[in-house]
Structures are given as C-alpha cells and as structure tokens.
Specification:
Blueprint lengths: L9 H32 L4 H4 L1 H83 L1 E2 L6 E2 L1 H23 L7 H13 L2 H21 L3 H11 L2 H15 L2 H9 L8 H7 L17
Antiparallel strand pairs: 1-2
Length: 285
C-alpha cells in the first residue's frame, strides 16, 4: 500500500534549514580545529612539551569549538524529534488507510452475506408460489391455482354474509369483525397450503428492512416476482390475519401492493382498501 507523503511546506523548509545549520556548525568546528592545529605546528616544538601552554590551548579550543558542537547537537536532537513526529504522522495516515480498507472489506462481506440469505429466501418464495399455483385443494380435485381459489371462496362467503346481513339486519353492511372472521374461516381451509409461503413472505420483507443497505433496491426485486393473485392474498392476509404494524409500514413505504387489482377488492368490499395508506398502491412512473 503506497502512502502519499505530505507536500513540502514551511515545516519542511525550517527542518532543512536547521539541518544545514547543524552541519555548518560541525564543519565550522572541524575547520577551527584544523586551523588551530596548523597554527600550532607553526610554533616551535617546545609548545608541545609545555603542559601549561597545551592546557591553555585546549581550554581555548574547548571554549571555542565545544559550544559550536553543543549547538549542533541540540539542533540535531531537535531535528530527530521533528522527523520522529513526521514518521508518526505517516504511520497514522497508513493506519487510517488500513482501517478504511478493512471497513470496505467488512461492508463487502456483509453485503455478500445479506445477498446470500436474501436470494435463498427469494428462491424459496418463488418455488412456494409456483407450487401453490399448481396444487390440489383436496385429494380428488385437479391441480388448481390456490391463490385464485382462496379469493373466490372468500368472495362467495362474503356474498353470503352480505345476504344474511341484508335479511337479518335490514341492509346494514357487515362489520369489520365479521369480514375478518369470514376470511379466517376460509383461510383455515388453505392454511397448510399457504402457511410456509406467507411466513417466508413476512420473513423476507422484514429481513430486507433490518439488514439491507439499500432496501428500495431489494424490495423492487421482490415486487417484480409478485403476481396480481399473490398480492391479493398478501393484502387480505396482512390486514385481516397478521395485522403486523411493522410489516404494514414497509408495505406502505415501498408500495408493495402496487400490483393489487383494486377492483377485485372492491367487489368484496371497498372498505378494505382504506385499511392501508394509499402509498401502498402507488404505481411508479
């Protein structure tokens, strides 16, 4: 992984000037030592044998060159701190880049895990729907589309209910509870056929809501596999049996009743269409 170094700035210029001063101080000290030795060689040999003179020369040399080199040492120490700080900055940048890469990898893995589960649930839903479209309602019956049969039987029973209400209650419309009881009674006869399908339907929708990074995209995929007959069963099951508020919110927000044939619902009773927000039926442009 290649880390970009910071562009040259005033801090770099200052550090370079300090380095130049440090090396200049060292060079100056060496030059003074050289000049001193050369000058000393120009005197008589007695000066090298006189300890007092050598001591004075050493004190002069130490008092002149020592501070210069001490200054160079301080500058070099300060430079070491500057470069150490720079290395720490580069290391921090590298750690941030590594963390970003790890987060991207984690996000990619999470998306892959989500999509694996999503497509498993979707495939199960599609297979279950295909099976229901070609199932036997009883042992002697021919294979029929159970989605249509459930709706037709519910409509027949609600028609009977309306006739009874008309006769017994002077034309009053059936109550919400009576509609609910009628559907539940009809649904019980199809429960073995639809139970796993509808449980998977709920699990699929709530799984997308809780785990997806882009729910609208995945709900559009799911919607594309729904048929009009399926959505009709979803509608009655959600509003009359499940009544799951979280699920209803998802359906309204992402228009999951988009394919619902509102006329067939109105044939049973238009009151049911008011059970959910109009957004649930919204057609996309």
């Amino acid at each position: 992984m290649r880390i970009k170094k910071p562009n040259l700035n005033w801090g770099d210029i200052f550090a370079n000037l300090l380095a130049l001063c440090a090396f200049a101080a060292i060079g100056l000290g060496l030059w003074l030592c050289y000049i001193f030795i050369v000058k000393m060689n120009g005197f008589s040999e007695e000066i090298w044998q006189d300890r007092t003179l050598l001591g004075m020369a050493g004190e002069f040399l130490g008092g002149t060159v020592g501070p210069i080199w001490a200054l160079a040492g301080v500058i070099l120490f300060f430079l070491a701190l500057i470069y150490q700080k720079r290395e720490l900055v580069l290391q921090r940048m590298e750690l941030q880049e590594s963390r970003k890469i790890m987060e991207d990898q984690s996000q990619t893995i999470a998306i892959q895990q989500f999509e694996n589960t999503f497509f498993q649930l979707l495939n199960f839903h599609i297979n279950a729907a295909n099976h229901i479209r070609n199932t036997k309602i009883n042992a002697k019956a021919k294979s029929q589309n159970a989605f249509d049969e459930l709706y037709l039987e519910f409509k027949r029973e609600t028609d009977k209910l309306k006739k009874r209400r008309k006769t017994d209650a002077g034309g009053l419309s059936p109550s919400d509870e009576s509609f609910e009881n009628t559907f539940i009674a009809v649904f019980e006869g199809y429960k073995n056929t639809f139970q796993h399908y509808l449980e998977n339907y709920k699990a699929l929708l709530l799984f997308i809501k809780s785990k997806s990074h882009d729910p609208a995209f995945y709900y559009n995929i799911v919607k594309s596999h729904f048929t009009e007959q399926e959505v009709q069963v979803h509608f009655y099951y959600i509003i009359l049996v499940s009544k799951n508020k979280e699920l209803i919110e998802v359906i309204e927000k992402y228009h999951l009743f988009q394919k619902l044939n509102e006329r067939t619902v109105a044939d049973v009773d238009p009151y049911h269409l008011k059970k959910v927000n109009e957004e649930a039926f919204k057609r996309e442009d």
